[in-house]
Amino acid sequence: MSEIMTPVAAKTPSSEEVALIKKFLTDTTLFLGPDPEIMQNHDLMPRTAIEDACMKEVSDAHTIAKIRDRIQAGCDEGYEMVEQMGAAPGAKWGDVITGVYSASGDLAIASAGGVLIFSALVHHPIKFIIKNWMNEPTVGVREGDGFIHNDSRYGNVHNTDQSMILPIFHEGKLVCWVASTVHEGENGAIEPGGMPSMAESPCDEGLKMCPFKVVENYEIKRDILTFLQNSVREPKLQYEDMKVKLFACLRIKQRIEETLNTDGPAALVSTLRLTMENVRAEVKRRISEWPDMTVRTYIIQDSTLRENCVVKINCQLTKTGDRLIFDFRGSSPEFTNRATNTIVAGLKGMLAQVFLCYVWPDLPRGQAAFAPIEVITDPNSIVNCSYDAPNSQSLMSIFTGFTAGQHAVAKFLYSCPEKYTKVHAPTFNMINTFIWGGVSQHGETLGNLCADLNGMGAGATVDRDGEHALAPIFATMADIGEQELNEEEVPFLQLVSKKMTRDAVAPGKYRGGQGYTQMVATKDSEQWGFMTVCQGAKIPPMQGLFGGYSCGAYPLCKVKGVDVYDVLLNEPEKFKHSIEEIMNEQPFEGASYTTHHMGMGFEISKRGELFMISQGAGAGYGDLLERDPAGVIRDIEEGLISPGVAERLYKVSFDPATLAINAEATAALRDAERKARLARGVPFKDFVKTWTQPKPPTYLQYFGCWGDDVGTLYAGSADSARDANAPKPNYMRHPKDVRIEALEARLAALGALAEEKQ
């Protein structure tokens, strides 16, 4: 007979034992990876006892406003320093931000210009430093220290952005932090320029700097600097911009110390905290004035930059009381071996940009403007990827996520009685530019990008057309750069640039602002190449608003087998200044003319070969049949739209020679089109019977939810449904393997056919 054992009650550990266990676990931690507790939280840290005491001591509105303006001026001064002295193209054209953070790591005040998306991202690495290095005896945080960081998994957009972070002490006590962040470009990734579309794992993405100390006694540590320089293609750029960011932070530090000396630490700490809390409270007040409702929308990505497919960014925006909730459940699952994923902090950063630039631009720039807004996603989603997935092309998902948010928010604003900006159709959202790299005409190895990504066309508003090539959605105060200056350092020319692309239009009652053509050709190097990293060659990456249309789809065009510099020298009349003319007329005998999707991996170019792309246009607003015919004619006169396209889209009749409008004929054309619309239309309940299908088509490589069932995600085919809450790997085959398999199948079929004929 077996003996029955009496269970022994578990002993509750004492507080000393708990402390010993925690110390053991801390001391034996093998790797301090990205901290989900930090990375998933975008709200303000709780008010500390010191902040509370300072706010009780100093809360006069005039004093707070004076100090806030002084710090704001210091941040703007630091921003100007980086923009004027930085070596990276990103620094020169405004892909920069500087800011002052509370002692707890929250961004209180940021520079007015630059990349405001950083305002919702750079606080994460500071909080990592506070949590892990502050009391770590081998690291520590002391006066004169500086920390560098770039890995987006610890808080940033993508690994091409680098931050310099300095703690600020007063009489031995930490009072705040200052930081400067720049899009540096080159970072030693698998492709030059810092944003590799070929990355299949984080190990392909170049430098992955968790926050670590690189400055002591306000001097850059030469051993670590040398390691970083040895890890990238542009060691000179790495050194110069580390120095620039450091000295920009020191200038902001100087302005803070002036405040400390004149007003004292309590006034500074109170100003930072009150600024954040007041902004957060004001955001909740403004949200409470919006109507309680839900808006659903989605945006489609048409590729992973490696293969064409349909990738859904699903968005539902709900407002109830003073809560505003972005729900991105139903978006595509992450791609395990593709670079277009983003961590959720990147998505939040771009959503913050919607409010800071397009909804409430009057609010102080800082983390608090987005702090009370909620974001929901599926686990391991393309907009909330795991730390094992690559994200060097996260812009594809944060930009389409931004557009989904901007599209939904506009419908709330339309219904809101008090507006701080005009209702705005979506701005164009892709980085249509050339990334470049290789050996320059001066023998230097380089890798970076053209500033033309900043030439995104603005969306139309409720009462006017969108502005052309206005600004990027991530930095509304930025520049498109001077290509002539760039050509002093790189071995290629932009043979056509800053010329609006005819018919690249997003029509509406008010049309979107248009983008411009870019044609590049290598001239003075045999080791030079280009990349393009954007979507929208098959499906436009945005939607119009209230009857307005999105822009069209624009491919990459290549002309090979020609030296265009010889053509310009000997037969200049053959060179055309538009993609439309070159691709249709094919003026260079013996050359090949091809079109491609916009995800071109790094490709070595020969002298004189043409690579041609165009920016898209911001979205249109309102019914295009309501457009003033005079506005249509003005667009024809300015070369923005061809007469045939204008007549077909807007139903406007005019004399082809004089462009004089025939008002009666125009009214008749538009009346006929309205009647044709009614004839084509069917009741909604009848429409959905034929339109709505239970699954994606079998021929479509589709990713995301289908219809309203956000709990079921498809991962490439109608047979690949999965539970959104039970994530699985989502691997894509290498495009070359797919191509080889298709060619082998064709060869096998031809072989079988030949055997039959025998």
Automatic annotation (TrEMBL):
<dbReference type="Pfam" id="PF02538">
    <property type="entry name" value="Hydantoinase_B"/>
</dbReference>
<dbReference type="InterPro" id="IPR045079">
    <property type="entry name" value="Oxoprolinase-like"/>
</dbReference>
<dbReference type="InterPro" id="IPR003692">
    <property type="entry name" value="Hydantoinase_B"/>
</dbReference>
<protein>
    <submittedName>
        <fullName>Acetone carboxylase subunit alpha</fullName>
    </submittedName>
</protein>
<feature type="domain" description="Hydantoinase B/oxoprolinase">
    <location>
        <begin position="61"/>
        <end position="623"/>
    </location>
</feature>
